[in-house]
Amino acid sequence: MSQAVELEVPPTAPGKTWTGRQVVILLVIGVGALMVSLTQSLLVPVMSELAVDLNTGSDGIAWLLTSTLLVGAVAVPAFGRLGDLYGTRRMVLVALSALVAGSLICALSDTLAWMIVGRAVVGLSVAVVPLSISLIGVTLPKEHAGSGIAVISAMLGVGGALGLPLAGVIAEYADYHVLFWICVAGGILAIPGIVLLVPEPVRSAKGRMDLAGTALLGGGILALLLPLAQGDSWGWGSGRTIGLFVAAAVLLVAFVLFELRIKSPLVDVRTTARPALLLTNVASLFVGFALFATLIGTATYVQAPAATGYGFGKSILVGGLCMLPGGIIMLLLSPVSAKLKPRIALIVGSLIIAVGFLSRIWLTGSLWEVVLGATIAGAGTGIAYAAMPGLIIHAAPRSELAAANGLNALFRSVGSSLASALGGAILAAKTIDLGGHALPSLGAYQLLFAICAGAAILAAALAVFIPTHSATADAAFPEE
Q1: Which of 459, 207, 148, 471 is CA-nearest to residue 341?
Q2: Within 10 Å of residue 155's Cβ, how many Cβ atoms?
Q3: How far apart are CA 301 and CA 441, in angstroms?
Q4: Which H or E run contains 137?
């Protein structure tokens, strides 16, 4: 883990207002982060339309999401290290270029194979958000860096919440290819702004790219996430699923042992084991779990027929719009983390998430109650997500900041994958028969919400044990 920058923050008087240039820098970097986060939810509402148009089944269509997930999981830590070695800004531009190229392939494609290729290329862009967090942290003055980081962090949730209603509108009034053209346009808008306005910070990391470590970590992550994504169709007890889980364990253990022995590791395991970093990363896994469960447990819930006893029979568009207040509140409340100590913000945010999911268990009678619960969970997610980079920047060395943020993003990705696998299994296992169709029961959703509340409480509990004075002498920002 290394940050390619030397954090020399210009001395500025406390409370100094934002300059126009600083606002524009945050805006152009934020647009890139928002477009990348949008890509992770845009396709969900149009999956059935894609299946018909591409003449394939649900297994084939699932690869449009799985390919992005797998490539992104490998790209995030690799791009973090490359950012440390060769420049964070440079790697943000490379990742955004992948977003444009991959989205362009999809926009021009009418076959499943090329669509999967395009989505795999888009997976490289997942590294934009953690890289942008590092870039903001070293580009803006220290008194504004916290708020800027909070806004970029919130884009992870905001993009997911905005993507669903946007895709719902496109699904009802236009061709789904428009979704990909939107991503192309957003990437093209962000790239020149970053080139012209955002300086490349001075690199302080030394060494070379750890290709062997990248291969071991990438192989281990692929072996872990692939069965999580395909377990329902393969069977959780199948030899292929179990074999990949075993391979993941072996490869990840080998990766840790290998990283401990080399001078220029992809991930500095000793640094990662610092309590502040380790506890933050594990907590982020649980928060990532809860966020993704919000996506799969709200829109489909609202769209379910009223005959299920809980659904409202609403359209794709309405289902997506129910996520919109949560996305807006994430963005509005994310700066709250900058006003609080990061550890306190993570605790508070996680507990608010738990309250939101607990309300979803009991408040089922009307649409506004569903929206309220999802919005409360979104508020907590915005605060918690924005707190994590603050904890990392006080514990990771300045020469390892980009990779530290990348590793944190990887933990969130694993949490989301676990939510997808476990949530999908629960919704498929606890069903009711409605006109010959098996639909998730209310009990299935309530169980999912209870698990999410428990995950959020675990995240808060872990945050309690993060050292109060976690800043270290070699940290990016030594003083908390």
Answers
A1: 471
A2: 30
A3: 10
A4: helix 128-139
Using DSSP's 3-state secondary structure scheme, residue 397 falls into strand
Contacts of 312 (CB under 8 A, 6+ apart): 302, 303, 304, 306, 318, 367, 370
Q: Smallest Cα–Cα separation from 472: which of 285, 286, 284, 268? A: 268
Rounded (10°) CA dihedral 452, 332, 342, 221: 50
> What pTM value is reported for the model?
0.83
Output the tens digit of pLDDT for each of the chain's 480 residues.
Answer: 443 333 333 333 445 688 888 888 888 898 888 888 888 778 877 777 787 788 877 667 778 888 888 888 888 888 988 888 888 899 999 999 999 999 999 999 888 899 999 999 999 998 998 898 888 877 887 777 778 888 887 787 777 777 777 887 887 788 888 989 999 999 998 999 899 988 877 666 677 888 898 899 889 988 888 888 777 778 888 889 999 999 999 999 999 999 888 888 887 888 888 888 899 999 999 998 887 777 777 878 888 888 888 888 888 778 778 888 887 887 787 777 777 888 899 999 999 999 999 999 988 878 899 899 989 998 898 888 888 888 888 888 777 777 788 888 888 888 888 887 788 788 877 888 777 777 888 888 899 999 999 999 999 999 999 887 555 545 555 554
* Other CB atoms within 10 A of residue 195 CB: 11
